[in-house]
Write a structure and sequence with these properties.
By secondary structure, the chain is α/β, with parallel strands linked by helices. It contains ten helices and ten strands. A five-stranded parallel beta sheet has the order 1-5-4-2-3. Helix 7 crosses helix 9 and helix 7 crosses helix 10.
Length: about 300
């Protein structure tokens, strides 16, 4: 089995490794896309001026113009420099961008840590990503929804669905989660001992809520005939790590509260979008999971049990 640091070393051998002075020179010259790969909670202490935020877990989707998640600014023909906290994630990311067809990509060796050690400037916040992609209405989706509704009406037993995920610890904090025939990687940031190869579980929880909101808006926009041109869902949760690490009794381990901000545009009236919002808040499955108690049973098996 190849270890992650061996993968990082192999990536470094095949990419352009820059020192902070070289990165600063390229920023001054302009026409370079500088990408901060760290997770949102890691950017609280500052970012390199002009950096675009594109967390490592979504980089390939943001960089590929063929995906719905492509972010303006990513162009295989453009000069791109990526960085993370220490240079490991950015080395892997630069190699991945090369595999996607980016021909002029480099990373900041040593990451933001080396940049700060040299007392170079920081900005408070990264540049927010943007997209010009539109969300078309589609008869195919409406037909699928109508077919499902008809099938359930004919046989209510078809309404019951079971979902499953199987997680296996494959590294220090690295977990491979099998969902059907797909594998999703989950990790923890380097700041708490992880490798930072993927978002952590609570970030996936927020991603599940945001994506489920987007899907439910999509479904109900078709059902109600309400056109959406653009839709973005921003989700933020506040968590006290004292509860996670047992540093103080009585502190909850999970989110204390969660904010969901939906940004929507299109030709409909404000009242029509309010109607859509009411439908989504009533029917979004993951919002229901977050907002209402769900019975959970745990078990454990051990050798010989």
């Amino acid at each position: 089995m190849t270890g992650v640091m061996e993968m990082v070393a192999a990536a470094r051998a095949g990419i352009e490794n820059l020192i902070p002075a070289e990165v600063a020179d390229e920023i001054d010259r302009g026409d370079v896309l500088l990408v901060d790969l760290r997770e949102p909670h890691e950017t609280a202490n500052g970012v390199i001026p002009g950096a675009l935020s594109a967390p490592r877990g979504m980089l390939e989707f943001h960089a590929d113009p063929a995906t719905p998640y492509h972010v303006d600014g990513f162009d295989p023909g453009r000069r791109v420099i990526v960085y993370c906290a220490s240079g490991s994630r950015s080395a892997l990311a630069a190699k991945s961008l090369q595999d996607l067809g980016y021909g002029d990509v480099a990373h900041l060796d040593g990451g933001l840590t080396r940049w700060v050690d040299e007392k170079r400037p920081l900005n408070a916040e990264p540049v927010a990503p943007s997209t010009t992609r539109r969300t078309p209405m589609t008869n195919t989706l409406k037909q699928a929804l109508d077919t499902t509704a008809s099938a359930v009406a004919d046989d209510p037993g078809r309404a019951a669905a079971t979902f499953a995920a199987e997680g296996e610890l494959v590294g220090v904090t690295e977990v491979d989660v099998r969902i059907g025939d797909r594998v999703v990687k989950v990790d923890q940031p380097e700041s708490i001992g992880g490798s930072g190869l993927a978002p952590n579980p609570v970030e996936f929880a927020l991603a599940s809520l945001g994506s489920c909101q987007a899907h439910t808006y999509r479904f109900w926009s078709e059902k109600l005939g309400i056109r959406i041109d653009e839709l973005r869902v921003d989700v933020q949760g506040r968590l006290d790590v004292r509860g996670v690490f047992g540093l103080e009794d009585g502190v909850r381990a999970g989110f204390g509260d969660v904010d969901v901000a939906v940004h929507i545009s299109g030709p409909e009236t404000a009242e029509r979008y309010k109607e859509l919002r009411r439908a989504v808040e009533e029917h979004c499955p993951v919002l229901d999971i977050f907002a209402n108690p769900v019975p959970v049973w745990t078990s454990m098996s051990t050798p010989g049990s």
